[in-house]
Write a structure and sequence with these properties.
Elements: H1 2-13, H2 27-35, H3 50-55, H4 61-65, H5 67-87, H6 94-143, H7 150-168, H8 172-185, H9 188-195, H10 200-214, H11 222-247, H12 252-277, H13 281-302, H14 322-345, H15 364-396
Helix pairs in contact: 5-12, 5-13, 6-7, 6-11, 6-12, 6-13, 6-14, 7-8, 7-10, 7-14, 10-11, 12-13
Length: about 400
């Protein structure tokens, strides 16, 4: 009896299996925890935001990133307008711009699409990490008791954290925060072993395979162990996909050629417009430069989805909400480990070899009544059995 009590105490004191509650948590936090940790941190957009978008244009961080080429081309446009006003009409390059413009547009579109493909592939890989972590935790708690699966559950919750750090790094403060999370999730010996290796995601995957193979001591069959090991293989594939995205940027020649083509086109565009617009070429060129260089810079940003947040005000920070994804996985692993205990506490309906219900009723209301009656009978049977055991023990004493 003593080992069972000790196991239950360690089970409830684990950070994976302990429920999170805070009396100071506001209703907004409760709604977030009820749905998803990423709910309040995810920005949604609508057409009604047009006024706010235009009002915040001067403080746009994207505008700050392209201000150097913007200032340069506005200066070139101003000089062109001055020369045109002082010495007469300049050579009209409108036919040249009409021929070159479509080619530049296609090049910018292909460049941005290639960058977005990298961003979306990284997001799909992390979505697969989320689903596989949930599936592996559910399989572990199905094939074993949550107490037996606790070492595996801790590593499953720690895997997205070490994968995020491996791909993104981050500031020293963020790394210390993640180290504290890992120290709270893992046993002290496991945490020391993890911090002593370089490729921490591969260490976690190797440990998960090892624990899946060792689960045979808990009665897990070979087929069930194969399912657990298959999940670790899927996590390894996701890690390899993210490594490929991180280690293989878009070819430098592609980006440089696009940048040079864009600068030459925009620098000669005032010659095509000054004869038609005069001094109005200045605002027209400022708008054109903002649009074209903004599209080009967006491609530069989204091609690196794992970029860490920097202190520079011109950096937009990481595009993927990996911290919220890691928090979601930790929450779900903890909840999955608690489901079986919650079901037993509430005497939920179970599969029976010889069910007492012979004919199903016409409606779900009658079916719920039968379930409630069966649960009451099971509770009474358990209580009577406990009372009989207590009486027998008293008679023996």
């Amino acid at each position: 009896m003593l080992p069972v009590v000790v196991g239950l105490l360690s089970f409830t004191s684990s950070p994976i299996l302990r429920a999170r509650s805070s009396p100071a948590c506001s209703s907004r936090c409760r709604v977030r925890d009820a749905f998803s940790p990423a709910f309040n941190s995810t920005v949604r957009y609508a057409a009604a935001d047009w006024a706010k978008n235009m009002r915040t244009l001067p403080s746009s961080r994207l505008l700050r990133r392209i201000r150097d080429p913007l200032y340069f081309n506005v200066g070139v446009t101003f000089a062109t307008c001055c020369v045109n006003a002082r010495f007469g009409p300049l050579p009209n390059l409108l036919p040249f711009s009409s021929l070159v413009g479509p080619s530049l547009g296609l090049l910018l579109v292909f460049r941005t699409n290639a960058a977005y493909d990298r961003f979306w592939e990284a997001r799909k890989a992390w979505g697969l990490v989320t689903s596989e972590c949930r599936a592996m935790a559910s399989l572990g708690c199905t094939f074993m008791t949550p107490q037996q699966a606790l070492p595996m559950l801790s590593l499953i919750a720690a895997f997205p954290v070490v994968m995020k750090n491996y791909l993104r790094g981050g500031s020293e403060k963020a790394q210390q925060r993640d180290v504290r999370r890992l120290a709270a999730l893992l046993a002290s010996q496991e945490f020391e072993a993890l911090t002593s290796v370089i490729n921490q995601p591969q260490y976690v995957l190797a440990r998960l395979r090892q624990l899946a193979q060792e689960s045979r001591v808990a009665g897990v069959s070979e087929k069930e162990r194969e399912m657990l090991i298959k999940s670790t293989g899927v996590l390894g594939d996701c890690l390899s996909t993210c490594e490929r995205i991180y280690n293989t940027p878009i070819p430098l020649a592609y980006s440089r050629h696009t940048s040079r083509f864009l600068v030459l086109y925009v620098s000669t565009l005032p010659l095509a417009l000054v004869g038609l617009l005069g001094w109005a070429t200045l605002p027209a060129m400022a708008t054109v430069c903002w649009a074209l260089f903004g599209i080009f810079e967006i491609g530069n940003l989204i091609e690196e989805p794992f970029t860490a947040t920097l202190s520079s005000p011109t950096n937009l920070g990481p595009l993927l909400p990996l911290t919220e994804v890691c928090r979601t996985i930790r929450r779900d692993v903890r909840s999955i480990a608690q489901y079986s205990q919650m079901a037993r506490d509430r005497s939920v309906p179970t599969i029976q070899r010889y069910p007492s219900v012979k004919v199903l009723p016409d409606g779900f209301r009658q079916l719920r009544v039968l379930f409630a009656a069966n649960a009451t009978n099971r509770t009474r049977a358990v209580a009577n059995s406990t009372a009989n055991v207590t009486t027998s023990a008293a008679n023996l004493l």
